[in-house]
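Name: HTH cro/C1-type domain-containing protein
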Amino acid sequence: MSFAPAALVAAAQAKGDQTPADMARRMGVPYLAVYRWATGRNAPGPSGLAAIERTYGLTTADLMREDAAA
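Structure predicted for HTH cro/C1-type domain-containing protein:
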């Protein structure tokens, strides 16, 4: 399983957050961290996952996707 940023971006857009800067302000986390999550460059750590769940109601399971079989 790996982090799937599409769920985060969709939840943010549903609340009116159109940019990573909007998301960062709403979650109270650094812009650069949110930018990296939204682009899939990095996955959020425990504190980031907590901020996402608190702000957008997404659980860790909501943010993960099954990797394709090799």
